[in-house]
Amino acid sequence: MGELKKWKNRKSRKPLILKGVRQSGKTYTLNEFGKENYDEVAYFNFEGNPALAERFEQDLDVKRILMELGILGGKRIKPESTLLIFDEIQFCNKALTFLKYFCEHAPEYPIVCAGSLLGIALSKPLSFPVGKVDFLTLRPMSFYEFVLANNEPMLLEYLEKLDLKASIPKAFADKLITLLKTYFVTGGMPEAVSKWVETKDVAEVERIQDAILNSYELDFAKHAPAVDFPKLSLIWKSIPGQLAKENDKFVYGRVKSGARAKDLEDAMQWLESSGMVYKVSKIEKPAIPLSAYSNQSYFKLYMSDIGLLRRMARLPAAVLFEESAAFSEFKGALTENYVLGELVNLHGDVPFYWKSGNTAEVDFVAQFEEKIVPIEVKASTNVKARSLNVYRDKYKPDVSVRTSMLNLKKDGGLINIPLYMLWLIEKLVKR
To answer: Is the peptide bond prior to 289 cis by the omega test (within 30 degrees of 0)?
Structure first.
């Protein structure tokens, strides 16, 4: 909401495209934003609406289109005071292209667009209005937002004011750990979180998660190229298994016997463009910019939502609240996926990971302005980190991070950040 208000007040405002995976709350957010900040909202959904798409087929007359949209919506569209919402705009390429003309000839009409597969549409070679639109991405709720949803704002305020010399009292730490484990169960899809807050019923949360997972599979069948559909489904279903086995990279042969990169690359790009998966590439050397030292053919795949990953893996919710060796490896993978999600939520940047031959591997390497920070992920209180020590000996970073269930502590250049405080990592490494 804060970013949307900044967009509204920007003098050089352009039509806004809001990207995000299905059911991450895009339509709800834009409608609420419109209700709070404009006199009226004119909402149009392009999915299954040929009459709407036809308005953009005739010519490039902005005034005609605005008049016809007003007739379709039953209300006059007024400059500055009416927010135009184009939902699922990826179903009408002409409307996407037409945003350029709104930008150039009718900038006084605020327009926001959303779509669950907009990343796919934008990656296609079409007459897209480059430089004529603004972008935002809505991701699943972060842990910070989950704590807010559970009505614990004072806990967050307390953590924000801590310095590195402080220790979190056990009563507060225990509450935060319980909230974190619950977040591992629900994930950050708004409907799942809402249902948990309302009912505290895991079965209801899992019913919603199953429905979301089914809708993703339907998207494969409905919107992906027919030749890619079987591959998409295989890659998608292989992710929990790939992470559980703690491979040092994504193994194509585990998707389908004998499969190679060239067989699956297009399907994998579809998943990445849709925002459903994050691709974390290996870096050979931690230097600025990290992307210049990455190996794009050596990577791991994670899911955009930790709750959907847990549900797809059929990891029982109860396991997260008990010490069970049987699921310890997958708990580690789940924790890695959580950390990745928190890092991406900071600025939208996907971090990298580092590996030195067959001797050491650091889970994530992130860049915060001029600082390159190695991050070792531990799921519990067992924090032996030989790989991080190898990295520190080799590259002598100013600051390194280990995130675990232990308390906040700084030991020389190593900061232990509790998993439930990871949203503060940028502030902590700069102190």
So the answer is: yes
Cα distance between residue 263 and residue 76, in whole Å? 51
pLDDT of 302-342, one tens digit each?
Answer: 999 999 999 999 999 988 887 766 567 788 899 999 999 99
> 261-274 vs 229-244: helix axis angle to the nearest 10?
90
Q: Would you give the DSSP letter of residue 39?
A: S
Tokens, residue 359: 């001797």
189-202 pLDDT tens trace: 999 999 999 999 99
Q: Where are the alpha helices (DSSP H) in 261-376?
A: 261-274, 306-312, 328-347
- Give the span between the Cα atoms of 137 and 114, in whole angstroms: 10
CA distance 334 to 3: 29
Cα–Cα distance list, 261 to 4, 281, 292, 297, 333 (Å): 39, 15, 21, 8, 23
- Alpha-carbon distance of 345 to 66, in angstroms, equals 36
- Cβ-based neighbour number of residue 236 at 10 Å: 22
CB half-sphere exposure, 319, CA atoms < 13 A: 17
Residue 415 in tokens: 């900061």
- What is the spatial distance between Cα 238 and Cα 73, in angstroms, rounded to a whole number? 44
What is the model's pTM?
0.92
Q: At what angle do helices 2-9 and 26-37 cross, to 10 degrees?
A: 50
